[in-house]
Write a structure and sequence with these properties.
GO cellular component, one term: cytoplasm
EC number: 3.4.19.5, 3.5.1.1
Number of strands: 13
Distance between the termini: 31 Å
Order of helices and strands: EHHEEHEHHHEEEEHHHEEEEE
Pfam families: Asparaginase_2
Catalytic activity: Cleavage of a beta-linked Asp residue from the N-terminus of a polypeptide; L-asparagine + H2O = L-aspartate + NH4(+)
Oligomer: single chain
Protein name: Isoaspartyl peptidase/L-asparaginase
Strand content: 15-25%
Structural class: alpha+beta
Length: 315
């Protein structure tokens, strides 16, 4: 019998220039999500269950651009993307341009488990949700005052999308990666996209190998940042490949972010966990809130170089 692995989860809340007024809430949000996902793992749950739980919590948190709190596209509507992937089977499910759904990550899991497909988009994704009896929520329930202000600011100044991550109008993706006691890894990523994106624009988040990737033979990865740049270098699969070549989780994350910057001048971040519970966190934006929970201890940070630590709350 194979030795039991140490359950580990890593969560991120998006790589961008997070304003000071929501920085504390962003850090608290990823810690809460990571601790909830870790509780799933230590209760015997799978890595898939853990990443879905963590991302659902972030989708419910208005601070983050996923689910409730999603940004507005150029028409002033919300279109959301999400993916979940199982590293044991290499099966994945994703949705893109879905509307009026509170938890796109859970809809993505249903795509993986209840269809023969990997991705369903737009009206088809909403029809699938309706078939499953998933309730629709009004757009106003998903949109925050901050998202509306960002949309108005964008329309006022007409900044280029690739400038948003260095401004305070960017907002971005959430994600989680985990390994369970059986050594199986999983990942999940969810986003509302970029403020004032074109209607129908799909970024990296729901694309396998770009916004997320999971393989028990290498690692689970979730990405965040400028979607077009991430897709150009298939960032999640690049991290996984670097680990297959012998790099540590942290070295693979750092090398992949540097490669994206050098090749396409891309900005963003990644989180990674291996089947042995080795973790990595890397980003080249001003901030990215992240948290790692392992052995009852949570490590977390948001600004470059930060690595705080504390014990997880007891039940």
């Amino acid at each position: 019998m194979a030795a039991m692995k140490t359950p580990t989860i890593v969560v991120h809340g998006g790589a961008w220039s997070i304003p000071d007024e929501i920085a504390e809430a962003s850090q608290a949000g990823v810690k809460a999500a990571a601790e909830a996902g870790y509780k799933v793992l230590t209760s015997g749950g799978s890595a898939l269950d853990a990443v879905e739980t963590a991302v659902r919590i972030l989708e419910d948190d208005v601070v983050f651009d996923a689910g409730t709190g999603s940004v507005l596209n150029s028409a002033g509507d919300v279109e959301m993307d999400a993916i979940i992937m199982d590293g044991q089977s290499l099966r994945a499910g994703s949705v893109a341009c879905v509307q009026n759904i509170a938890h796109p990550v859970s809809l993505a899991r249903q795509v993986m488990e209840k269809t023969d497909h990997t991705m369903i988009v737009g009206e088809g994704a909403n029809l699938f949700a309706k078939e499953l009896g998933i309730p629709q929520v009004p757009t106003d329930q998903l949109v925050t005052d901050i998202a509306r202000q960002q949309w108005e600011e964008y329309n006022k100044y007409k900044r280029a999308v690739n400038e948003l991550f260095d401004s305070q109008l960017g907002h971005d993706t959430v994600g989680a990666v985990a390994v369970d006691s059986e050594g199986n890894v999983a990942c999940a990523t969810s986003t509302g996209g970029i403020t004032a994106k074109r209607v129908g624009r799909v970024g990296d988040s729901p694309v396998i190998g770009c916004g997320a990737y999971a393989d028990n033979e290498s690692a689970a990865v979730s990405c965040t940042g400028h979607g077009e740049a991430i897709m150009s270098v298939t960032l999640a699969r690049t991290v996984s490949f670097n680990m297959e070549q012998g790099a540590s989780a942290q070295a693979a994350a750092d090398k992949s972010i540097a490669y994206m910057k050098n090749r396409v001048d891309g900005t963003g971040g990644v989180i990674v966990v291996s089947g042995e519970g080795e973790t990595g966190v890397s980003f080249n934006t001003r901030r990215m809130p992240w948290a790692v929970v392992r052995d009852g201890t949570v490590r977390f940070g948001m600004n470059p170089g930060e690595n705080f630590q504390k014990e997880c709350p007891k039940d």
